[in-house]
Amino acid sequence: MAEGRIKWSNDFLGLGYRYYDLRMNVAPLFEDRKQAVNAWHDVIRWWIDPTIRVRFVEYAKSYLFVMAAESKRPESNVAFYHTMPRSKHYERFKAGIEGEAYLRLGMYAKKYLDGVKDDAVCECGHEAEDHGEEARDGLEATDECFAPGCECRKFETVQITLLHKKKTVTDIAFMAEDDAKNDALAWNCISANVQD
Predict the structure, then answer these.
(1) Would you say 43 and 76 are in contact if contact means Cβ atoms under 8 Å apart?
(2) How far, in Å, are 27, 48, 61, 174 from residue 54 at the CA level?
(3) Parallel, antiparallel, or unpaired: how do β-strands 14-18 and 24-30 relate?
């Protein structure tokens, strides 16, 4: 992939990681299923598996995710990038990667009390059944947490759904910001997209 021909996209929300599979999963997350399916169908489906490259360029409190590959349809090929805060999920993925991972795409959605099952867990750590009270006696419905000592006023949780299709990635590298200039993919992305 020559630098002049690379089309870059950061039109996704971030990354999700899945640890319990034959290989760890790294999944760019989209707002809705249509975006994820289109990205798979139009771009990633055509990638040649052994050429898929994933780079993680580490900064003090964040990291840059970069992903690209050679394609059977070069006219519609796109490379992906996104800067994200470092997290315990990223660190766990980095520690357990063992040289290869599955690439999948997914959807990220905020869910509220009226759209989840009773065992869904709120950001406060309590289940949905511990939240909410129906409207009665002229009072409005509420979805605050009733667990002792909890000050949560609104049930919110996140649901991540992964597409079933996957590709195997064997060219994965983690590097410090200073080492990125020695990696063509990482350096091309930083040069074209990352502003100081």
Answers:
(1) yes
(2) 11, 13, 19, 9
(3) antiparallel
Q: Is 124 helix (H, G, I), strand (E, B) or coil?
A: coil
- Strand, coil or helix: 180: helix
H-type alpha helices, the chain: 33-42, 88-96, 184-193
- The Cα 8–Cα 76 span in angstroms is 11
CA distance 77 to 44: 8
Reduce the DSSP state of residue 5 to 3 states and report it: helix
Contacts of 42 (CB under 8 A, 6+ apart): 76
Phi, psi of 31 (to 5 degrees): -65, -40
Q: Which residues pair with 78 in a beta bridge?
A: none
Q: Is the pTM of this model over 0.90?
A: no
pLDDT 10s digits, 84-124 = 999 999 999 999 998 899 999 999 888 888 777 777 888 88
